[in-house]
Amino acid sequence: MNDGRYARFVRMRITAIRIAGCLAASALISAQSIAAPPASLDAKAIGEASGATATPTPDGVVKIGWPRTDVTVTVDGMTLPPAAGLGSWAAFAPMATGAMVMGDTVVFEDEVDAAMDAAFTHGLSVTALHNHFFHDTPKVYFMHIGGEGQAESLAAGVKAVWGAIRAVRNAHPQPATGFGGATPAPGHVDADAVSKIVGQPATDSAGVAKITIGRTGTMQGMAVGGSMGLTTWAAFSGSDALAAMDGDFIMSAEEVQPVLHVLRKAGVHIVALHSHMIGEHPSFYFTHFWSTGKAEDLAHAFRAALDAQAAVKKP
């Protein structure tokens, strides 16, 4: 073998060794990246932490439930049994680092604030708030929750949410028909003052001050924006001394919890959390809210939620 052929042979040999080394390293990394099967959950411990009967399922999930037998609900004139869709539940699935929980909580209108605050206090997320029925008396809603962590801690959080609901019903057996407090009278809200606090232009329509903030996204391959409904808005009606604020926040997934937390901290009632579209990018969620008080205080609450949203790091 002459010197030239030998040199090429050596280079090919070195290349083959390097390729083999890379393949071996890649295989090792892939093997390490495959998480070990998560440990099974302790149903007894979850039951004790939640104060509810915990039932394991064949796929390794542990479930707890609470049928709402404490309030009679009629739907379209029919008395609805709890088994027909008036049951709160939570399901716990094992993860490599602990567990995840998902659940649906039956709430009447005067229970939402207490249930949501308890969820936040115990590190749970609120992922939806909506209705399941029409013509139901009293009005019943469903608050979906989620979280990740140690199974017993998550179960204790669910217990706290259900306990907060029970406390409301123990104090008042029948659901309330209003938030309470003074009712704003029709009047005029200073749109300029609201605009200055929020830092956004406000319109004045027959004494109602309204702020609308557009957002952009894509859907069906085309750009969509505020004119197509991608907006955050708040309307202030009544008077400067006693106003009502209602509105809607558009949020990406990572913005939902920060916005909800700030609104609740300000005493703003969350009355819905849901989607408006299918197939948009990024996925957007909308929370509707209501509160009464001094117009300037309401404007500050709205501004605080906008600031919290803006502070979220975008993916």
- C-alpha end-to-end distance: 58 Å
Unreliable stretches covering 5 or more consecutive residues: 12-17, 19-33
- By CATH reckoning, the class of the largest domain would read Alpha Beta
Number of domains: 2
Oligomer: single chain
Report the average pLDDT across residues: 91
Strand order of the largest sheet: 1-2-5-6-9-7
Radius of gyration: 27 Å
Structural class comes to: alpha+beta
The count of helical stretches stands at 7
Main β-sheet description: 6 strands, antiparallel
What shape does the CA trace take? globular
> Which CATH architecture of the largest domain?
2-Layer Sandwich
- What proportion of the residues form beta strands (DSSP E)? 25-35%
DSSP helix fraction = 25-40%
Q: According to CATH, what is the topology of the largest domain? A: Alpha-Beta Plaits
| Secondary-structure element pattern, one letter each | HHEEEEEEHEEEHHEEEEEEHEEEH
Count of β-strands: 18
